[in-house]
Amino acid sequence: MPEFHPGNWVEDAVDWLQTHLGWLFDFINTVLTGLYDGINAVLGGGEPLLLAGIFAVIAFWLRGLAAGVIAFVGFVLIDTFQLWDEAMQTLSLVLAAAVITIVIAVPTGIWAARKKSVSAAVRPVLDVMQTMPAFVYLIPGVMFFSVGTTPGLLATIIFSMPPGVRMTELGIRQVDGELVEAAEAFGTTPKHTLTRVQFPLALPTIMAGVNQVIMLALSMVVIAGMAGAPGLGERVYAAVTQVQIGLGVESGVAVVILAMYLDRMTGALNLRVSPLGRRAAAKATAMMGRMRFVRYKPGSAVALCGVVVLALVAGGMNFADSGSEEQASGSTNVGKGKQLNMGYIPWDEGIATSYLWKEVLEQRGFKPNLKQLDAGPLYTSLAQGETDFQTDAWLPTTHQQYWDKYGSKMEKLGDWYGPTSLELSVPSYVKGVKSLADLKGQGKKFNGKIIGIESSAGEMKILKEKVLKDYGLEGEYKVVSSSTSSMLSELKRSIQKKEPVVVTLWSPHWAYNAYDLTKLKDPKGAFGKGEKLYNVGRKGFAKDNPIVASWLKNFHLTEKQLTSLEDKIQGAGKGQEQKAVKDWLKGHPGFVDKMAPTPGGEKKQGKGAGKAVQMGYFPWDEAIATTYLWQNILEDRGYKPNVKQLDPGPLYTALAQGEMDFQTDAWLPTTHEQYWRKYKDRLTDVGSWYGPTSLELSVPEYVKGVDSLEDLKGKSDMFGGKITGIESSAGEMKILKKVLKDYGLDKEYKVVSSSTSSMISEVDRSVKQKKPVVATTWSPHWVYSKYPLKKLKDPKGSWGKGDHIHVTAKKDFKKDFPELYGWLKDFHMSEDDLGSLEASIQSGGKGKEKESARKWLDSHPGMEDKLAPVK
């Protein structure tokens, strides 16, 4: 039979919908999250005991005193589990989903009951909705709306819709036809027949459908925890994936309490709203005679007063407590309450580093929100911008499939550990199995199975598709997908019983410290080379959060630090991860300041504080960038810098005459050689901070056939016979005359002197219009990042060797400013740092160079202490 894969069509349809109906998904997302946030703001905003009292009053009103007491005890129990916020989030999800479901389901059921054609069309749709595995609904939800509240609500609405429609249709159809005929015979309109006859009589059945909608919604929002939906589902999912028995039991009990409360209250509500229900309740009460007080229920007005009073008290207490949260203060309050969304895969190093960063970010004034997800949903969430960053990307192998799919929508924030290794391992008491090749023919010893981890993990894909095949183990072994914690539990059980077992592991991992294991050698290299662990953020994260991005890029852990942190968390027990991190940090004083150095903060005064410093610069990008950088640094160190712009000639003259103290942009030994030769006896060469540089002519990449200076010969008409230059005083302009002569271009081309900014403007205009242009450029320069330019080769070496960029100063500079001299002598910048600083100043705009340099310096914490250390 030919293969048939309708799933491929579905994926294509999803891609098309994402591309063309993004506005619709944004609208749905806004409606669903808005409804949830509104309900959750009410349920989660008050004191737990007072809200438990409100729930108890509602139970007292609907079912009596005993029900009220039991409800209060149940919700108090949830609070003692420290799961109140999660329970209210779950209840908010259920109510939000139930409201939308009922609004859709009841009218649809009525329509189906009144028209057979509608009923026939709706029935197969409901069959599919009711029998489709619940997990499947999460997939399109995650694809369209990323992880979080919306996919959970959407899946819940779809999953819980069928009973609402079916029970409404059934209730309407079960109304006695003679009653309907009688109503019509008396001239009742179809509308009034529905509202005054059919609907009241069908209400008990409809309410039973509502009850089922709510119960199915509760079961689905728990499952939706897999897709990042908040609440008890998230806790249950964490308990399952990490084998947290205690948390699983507590979360399960909380779900049961919510389920029983919702079931009993919706059932009792039927007796309140249905005429038949009220009649049956009154009859049952009358039959109790003198014992009727047992079934006493307060009137609606009394119950409403009780709810209002408790709600007002709860609201008042919440208002009084607002603003009482402790905030990071002083220089450590970098985040100023900004929220950051973090995701993690439940792998040990992911758990350890995620809770480490959560603690550090809280100490720095941020509000990190940490969510556990599987690898697939996590990378989807990063690509869609719902999650800001995660710390456990294994590249270039384990998570390569996700990077291939979403790499253009994410950005690497630096590797913090590596290289790692993937492997299969067995207990050391298993004899004769030292390598993967030794597993061949011994499948019965291990019951034909290899205990794996999460099916979404890249290691599992490599194991199934490559490792087993390369070693001829297919068919003999079955890879059992589970979770990291389940794999470790199976390993522990097997070791306790001295049974053979093969597990999927990796290094580093604390299991090698806890158990005596043998890493199976991989002579064929099927698992590939070792990887590195990366921090990965959504696209634009570094731009939006430059300080945090710089912390992540400079973050590193040694194997000893990582394994000790993992051991601390393992020993602390489940649910105590952040407490374990705090204890670990106490044993590593100074680690937080090294990991997340605060920008600004307490200003360290230099030895020369109070001295006035005259700084000069000419308007070249690297000069502007470094001059304003040092102006900010010197002000922080207590100096009084004064900055003045000059052309190179006047600037070197001012330095030689002692009117200027220093400048940061001397290109030597070529570009500024004329000034150095003239004034070197009256100047100080403080030292080189960047190099080598290069001078060049450049053309846009779309200009074909021009790749070197020789190719310009005979093509002056293409470029209008001109070369766009910079300031006429620049040494490069002088050298350019020699270059043109060497290549026989001096009579064919005219060099147009202008300025650096004018040259860039000409390049900008030409590139936008796709016109040929030859420009005088140099490296390093941000122009190569912004425009598609190619440097013309210089086979004759007419430009000479590359320069180094030096700091030059007046003759007595070292004597007058010994501390500053030492800082500048050790000053160095990488091409990446210089380029990002220039780009920051460019984006800041004219007149804001100092402020832009300040922002760049603040986004590189630790840079100031590195460039200008104060002892």
From TrEMBL:
<dbReference type="Pfam" id="PF04069">
    <property type="entry name" value="OpuAC"/>
</dbReference>
<feature type="compositionally biased region" description="Basic and acidic residues">
    <location>
        <begin position="846"/>
        <end position="871"/>
    </location>
</feature>
<dbReference type="Pfam" id="PF00528">
    <property type="entry name" value="BPD_transp_1"/>
</dbReference>
<comment type="similarity">
    <text>Belongs to the binding-protein-dependent transport system permease family.</text>
</comment>
<dbReference type="GO" id="GO:0015871">
    <property type="term" value="P:choline transport"/>
</dbReference>
<feature type="transmembrane region" description="Helical">
    <location>
        <begin position="201"/>
        <end position="224"/>
    </location>
</feature>
<dbReference type="GO" id="GO:0005275">
    <property type="term" value="F:amine transmembrane transporter activity"/>
</dbReference>
<dbReference type="InterPro" id="IPR007210">
    <property type="entry name" value="ABC_Gly_betaine_transp_sub-bd"/>
</dbReference>
<feature type="region of interest" description="Disordered">
    <location>
        <begin position="838"/>
        <end position="871"/>
    </location>
</feature>
<keyword id="KW-0812">Transmembrane</keyword>
<dbReference type="GO" id="GO:0031460">
    <property type="term" value="P:glycine betaine transport"/>
</dbReference>
<dbReference type="InterPro" id="IPR000515">
    <property type="entry name" value="MetI-like"/>
</dbReference>
<dbReference type="InterPro" id="IPR035906">
    <property type="entry name" value="MetI-like_sf"/>
</dbReference>
<dbReference type="GO" id="GO:0015226">
    <property type="term" value="F:carnitine transmembrane transporter activity"/>
</dbReference>
<comment type="similarity">
    <text>In the N-terminal section; belongs to the binding-protein-dependent transport system permease family.</text>
</comment>
<dbReference type="GO" id="GO:0043190">
    <property type="term" value="C:ATP-binding cassette (ABC) transporter complex"/>
</dbReference>
<feature type="transmembrane region" description="Helical">
    <location>
        <begin position="300"/>
        <end position="320"/>
    </location>
</feature>
<feature type="transmembrane region" description="Helical">
    <location>
        <begin position="134"/>
        <end position="159"/>
    </location>
</feature>
<keyword id="KW-1133">Transmembrane helix</keyword>
<feature type="transmembrane region" description="Helical">
    <location>
        <begin position="90"/>
        <end position="114"/>
    </location>
</feature>
<keyword id="KW-1003">Cell membrane</keyword>
<feature type="transmembrane region" description="Helical">
    <location>
        <begin position="49"/>
        <end position="78"/>
    </location>
</feature>
<feature type="domain" description="ABC transmembrane type-1">
    <location>
        <begin position="87"/>
        <end position="266"/>
    </location>
</feature>
<keyword id="KW-0472">Membrane</keyword>
<protein>
    <submittedName>
        <fullName>ABC transporter permease subunit</fullName>
    </submittedName>
</protein>
<feature type="transmembrane region" description="Helical">
    <location>
        <begin position="236"/>
        <end position="262"/>
    </location>
</feature>
<keyword id="KW-0813">Transport</keyword>
